[in-house]
Amino acid sequence: MNTMLRKSVLGIAGLAFAGGMFAGPATTNAAPSIESKPVAATAQADKVDKGKLIPHGVQGKQSRIDLTDEQIGNVKAIIAATKKADMDERAAVVAIATALQESKLENLGHLGERNDHDSQGLFQQRPSSGWGTVEQITDPEYSTMAFLKGLKQVDGWQDMPLTKAAQTVQVSAYPFHYAQWETQAADLVAEHWNS
Questions:
Q1: Which of 25, 56, 105, 152 could disulfide-link 30, Cβ–Cβ 3.0 to 4.6 Å?
Q2: How far apart are CA 178 and CA 50, in angstroms?
Q3: Relative orientation angle of helices 69-84 and 182-192, to the nearest 10 degrees
Q4: How far apart are CA 71 and CA 177, in angstroms?
Q5: Tens of pLDDT along 32-74?
Q6: Taking the CA of residue 15 as centre, how many other CA atoms within 13 Å lie in the half-sphere pointing to its CB?
Q7: Rounded to whole angstroms, how far apart are CA atoms 126 and 115?
Q8: How many C-beta atoms lie closer than 10 Å to residue 32's C-beta?
Q9: 112 confidence band (pLDDT: 50, 70, 90)
Q10: Measured torsion, CA atoms of residues 189, 90, 62, 116, in degrees rounded to the nearest 10
């Protein structure tokens, strides 16, 4: 009988405690619960370190364009591919700045007479130069993975200014044009890396 009474009392106490947990504090002036602090700490931990995105500072005047939903989708595809390639936020900045210069983040098909040879996709990669088939290089994930594979092969790319790293992969006729997109690329990575 004593055990049964004790179980009943403990059960009632447990219900009262659980009811208080679910119903919240009895007064409106109660101090905030401790549970809210870890959430704020977690949100801070998810922020991208801006110093890591532009470790060498920007070179020259910076450009910026307004982006459509399609272009933002391509930013997210580049970030997803960067993560899939097991590369960091800086690699995403280099890739996005490169795509901003090459295509303004639009997945371009063949442009006819206005086309630079047979360049297509986000990075203006050329099937005739071995980047892949037209179908492959107009797939944002594939084209980003191809760009990042080239970037991984550049010794010390992490320690180079963005424009030099991008140029080493792309071999552009305008090697210094990549630098103008570094700030916008970093802002896009900071905004979308954890989304």
A1: 25
A2: 19
A3: 80
A4: 19
A5: 333 433 433 334 446 777 778 988 888 889 999 999 999 999 9
A6: 5
A7: 11
A8: 8
A9: low
A10: -100
Helix spans in the chain (H): 2-23, 36-45, 50-53, 69-84, 89-103, 134-137, 140-152, 162-170, 182-192
With a CB cutoff of 8 Å and minimum separation 6, the contacts of 187 are none
Q: Specify the amino acid at residue 80.
A: A
| Cα–Cα distance, 73 to 76 (Å, whole number) | 5
Tokens standing for residue 31: 């101090």
Q: 107: alpha, beta or left, given left = phi > 0 and alpha = psi -120 to 50? A: beta
Residue 157's SS3 state is helix
Residues in the chain: 195
Q: Count CA atoms closer than 13 A to 64's CA, side-chain side.
A: 7
